[in-house]
Amino acid sequence: MSTVSAYRAQWKFHESIYMQRTAEDESFTFGIRKTKAKETNLLKQTDKMMTSVTTTLLLAIVAMCVSAAPTEKKTLFNELFDELNTTMKELSKHSMDDIFVSDLKHHKDCKDVFFCQAEDQLIKKVSGRSGSKFERFRSDKKLMRTLKMINENNMKTCKPADDQVEIQLSEFLKNLKQCVQLRNANKIKE
């Protein structure tokens, strides 16, 4: 009997070790399940946050794009106005009685066509002249670059101006300045 008792004792010992390991494994597995549940919950929360952040960013970008276009155009007209003021002050020091450009009276409504033809007239009749007083009319200078940017955003094609009636450059620049002021004040729609 002693061998049977020894086997039983040994069996109970191994059984207790097995049960202990099984309990540990189950608690370990349960801990993993808990951890996975927490991770899944965190992933869901993170996903919700990312969705809301993405939506907010997209709305902000759309709002910026919608409001940026008129602001950019207004900025260009402000720059053109400043350049025209500076150019007209400089030209008042010089005699400009001999420079004539087409009168754009028929486009005095200051729509996009007016600015397109104004740029065209300045390029054709003033930009190519030599002398320091014509420096601001060069295509690489701010006055002409700004006028070009305004026209690039607006016109696909530009009809040539009617060259039958011409006015002095100083009068032409005053007309251009008035149109810029009207467009800045939003009194004229494109």
Descriptive account of the structure:
- The chain starts with a helix and ends in a 6-residue tail after the last helix.
- It is built from four helices and two strands; from the N terminus they run αβααβα.
- Helix content is 71%, strand content 3%.
- α2 (112-127) packs antiparallel against α3.
- 18% of the residues are buried.
Number of DSSP strand runs: 2
Largest sheet: 2 strands, antiparallel
Oligomer: single chain
What's the overall geometry? rod-shaped
The level of helicity is over 70%
Instruction: Please state the CA-atom Rg, rounded to the nearest Å.
Output: 40 Å
Helix/strand/pairing category: mainly alpha
Can you tag this structure with a few keywords?
190 residues, mainly alpha, Growth Hormone, Chain: A, two-stranded antiparallel sheet, 4 helices, 3% strand, rod-shaped
Please describe the topology of this protein.
Elements: H1 2-91, E1 100-102, H2 112-127, H3 142-154, E2 166-168, H4 169-184
Antiparallel strand pairs: 1-2
Question: How would you summarize what this structure contains?
Answer:
The protein contains 4 helices and 2 strands; from the N terminus they run αβααβα. It is mainly alpha-helical and 190 residues long.
